[in-house]
Structure formats: structure tokens, C-alpha cells
Amino acid sequence: LSSTATLNDGRKIPLIGLGVYQAPTGITTQNAVTWALEAGYRHVDTAALYENEADVGIAINKSGIPREEIWITTKIWNSDQGYEKTLKAAEESLKKLQSEYIDLLILHSPLPGSQLRKESYDALQQLVRAGKVKSIGVSNYGVKHLKELLEQKPEIKPAINQVEIHPWLTRNDIATFCSQNDIVVEAYSPLAKGKKLDDPTLVKISEKYNKSSAQVLIRWGLQHGYVTLPKSVDKNRIVQNVDVFDFEIGEEDMKSLDSLDEYLTTGWDPTTCE
Ligand code: A2P
Questions:
Q1: Where does the record place the NADP-dependent oxidoreductase domain (predicted)?
Q2: Which residues line ligand 1 (CB under 6 A)?
């Protein structure tokens, strides 16, 4: 298994990223990012909404790892959608991250509606032309939102759609549409926020491979070809969550996990909105 995925713009994204949603502002997030970089992560997924972009910036700067070796994703929050507002929000994120560029900037959700989605995506393209952003995409987009965007024939196609995905929420429709259109899927909350780690099917498979439930879930995402974004602020769990390259889930076990699907969303679900 290669440790990067290649996007439709030619850039390579590390397959596992540290998620920092609900990682508290300040030293907690800074420590999490520092431990992750020490453990070999080269990808951090933050958002303006999370209020910890500055902490991600501090930890990355302190690490001494060259900026170009680390992938930073951040997101344009709903209330910042619109052409000018998106440009302004991107500048604020750049400042907080203490960086000259953002690797991947995505629209956090389709909730603001059709007109603002279009304007905001136009702004993302402008940011790429200006060299401030390298890759662009969307998040929480359902198939209809993706179709709407592709029908506008943007000069720069979305490289990514980041959605909640795990065996209890497989989102086959979105994943299939993305794969047909050369859009990489990123899985957030790949651990279903820890709510299903005791699931008997999962536990049985974990025991078979001598791995933790979390490791099996992360590996499940990777084997589906998803960029996988486990969140943790705990040093041991951060280390554990990237120790997933020494085993492979067999086909039958993948199918058993796939069959757990019950459309379980652990937070919001904008993929079905207008
Ligand atoms: P913590 O941050 O204290 O480690 P998701 O990525 O699906 O959103 O899940 C995040 C939740 O899962 C958090 O509560 C996180 O807690 C917990 N978590 C992260 N890694 C592991 C792990 N390896 N084992 C058990 N729980 C984990």
C-alpha cells in the first residue's frame, strides 16, 4: 500500500492525516500535532471552525520539518462562503497557519446554497491561480452537489470530497460517483467517533489480525482507497493510528465490515441538503 494518493491535479496527498476536530485550542492541539509529526504523520486536517489553525501552525513551525514535506488542509466555514468572503477567510487561515500556502482548501459544507457554493468555488480557483492554495475541493457534498459543481465546468476540478465514512456509514453512492469522476474521497470520523469500537463483528476481525478496533477501521478506509483522517489528542493513540501498514484485511472480512452499514451519522449530515 503506497502511503500517498495522487489527486486529479497531479499532487500527492499522504493517505493518513491527523484530524483535529474538537481538539481544544492551545497546548492540547499543539501537542497532538507535535506527537503526530514525531510518529511520522505528514498531514494535518484542520478548519477555521475548529479554532486551532494557529496551534497547528505553531507545532509545524516548531517541528523544523520543511514546510513542503507536510500537507495542511483547512476549510472555509459556511458563514464565510461567497466570493469576497472566501478570499478573506483564506487570508485569515494563511495568517493563523503561518504559512505562505495551503495544500488543500475545501468548502466545509454545501449548506449555504447553490449561489454561494458557486461563488465560493470560484474564489477557491482564484486562490490557486494566485499561488496561495495548491489543491481545492469540497466537504460534505452529496452526489447532487457534486453534479451541480461539475456541470459548471470549473477550470480546476475538485480534487477531493471529504465526508464522514466508516463501516456504519459507507456512502456507496458518493464514493462511486467520486471514483467515476476522479475525485478522491477523504473519510472523516473514520472511527465513528469511538462509538462502535465494541461492535462484535469488528472486535472479532481485530482479534484475528491482532490489531485494535481503531486500527482495523483505519485500514478499512485505506483499503477502500480513502484518505483517512483519524482524530486523537492522545499520544499513544496517535502513534497506534498510523501503525496500520503491516497487515491487510482479507476480502471476506472487508465484506463483513461493509455490511455493517446502517447510515449512522455521528454528527451533522449536510450531504442531503438543498
Ligand atoms: P482521543 O482524542 O482522546 O484519542 P473519529 O476520528 O472517528 O472522529 O474518532 C475520534 C474519537 O476516537 C475521539 O474521541 C478519540 O479520542 C478516539 N480515538 C482516537 N484514536 C483512538 C484509538 N486508537 N482507540 C480508541 N479511541 C480512539
A1: 29-262
A2: 19, 189-194, 197, 212, 214, 230-234, 237, 240-241
Number of domains in the chain: 1
Cβ–Cβ under 8 Å, residues 38 and 70: no
Nearest to 225 by CA among 193, 260, 272, 182: 182
- Cell numbers that stand for 61 in this block: 513551525
Q: Annotated active-site positions, please?
A: 50
Task: Kindly state the cell numbers that stand for 173.
Answer: 453512492
Q: Ligand 1 center to residue 232 CA distance, Å?
A: 5
Is residue 218 in some structural domain?
no
pLDDT in tens, the chain (274 residues): 559 999 999 999 999 999 999 999 999 999 999 999 999 999 999 999 999 999 999 999 999 999 999 999 999 999 999 999 999 999 999 999 999 999 999 999 999 999 999 999 999 999 999 999 999 999 999 999 999 999 999 999 999 999 999 999 999 999 999 999 999 999 999 999 999 999 999 999 999 999 999 999 999 999 999 999 999 999 999 999 999 999 999 999 999 999 999 999 999 999 999 9
ipTM comes to 0.99
Give domain status of residue 246, yes or no. no
